Amino acid sequence: MKRIYVNEKWCLGCRLCEYYCAFAETGKKNMALALKDVKINPRIRVESHEDINFAVNCRHCDEPLCVKSCITGALSVTDGVVKINSERCVECYTCILVCPFGAIVPSDSGVLKKCELCLDIIEGSPACVKGCPNNAIVYESTLVQKGQG
User: Could you tell me if 112 and 86 are in contact, meaning their C-beta atoms sit under 8 angstroms apart?
Assistant: First the structure.
């Protein structure tokens, strides 16, 4: 299972990951045209605290509280990825309350929105990883991250 990891030491706080994420959702070929005059609502966001920048994104937990707390079963785990079935979501936002990382947000329509690793959008690495100019965001196996691979 691959996951997104962020190295805070390398994060510049440029927020390009946010723009690449929002752009990937549009399905268009030109970022400038796709996002011109659009208030973006990405699935990843950069937070800053003192001199540290870090990305807030879904960790695709091994035992996700959001999935366990979903009253309609709109959240599920498929191949290690926490996914949303927007047709089942009733916008109770219980999952937002229980996520320890703050990685689930309402979309513009009110239904949930979170990182799903761009698996249904693009090939290869997620858009935020491809767009990070400093390689602070990586997409790698959980075994490598834990030092087991």
Answer: yes
Euclidean distance between CA atoms 123 and 2, whole angstroms: 14
35-71 pLDDT, tens digit each: 999 999 999 999 998 888 988 999 999 999 999 999 9
CA–CA dist 43, 99 (Å, integer): 14
- pTM (two decimals): 0.86
How far CA 135 is from CA of 3, 7, 11, 58, 91, in Å, comes to: 15, 8, 8, 18, 35
Indicate whether 139 pLDDT > 50.
yes
CA gap 23, 149 in Å, rounded: 33
Three-class secondary structure assignment of 88-134 = CCCCCCHHHHHCCCCCCEECCCCCEECCCCCCCCCCCCCHHHHHCCC
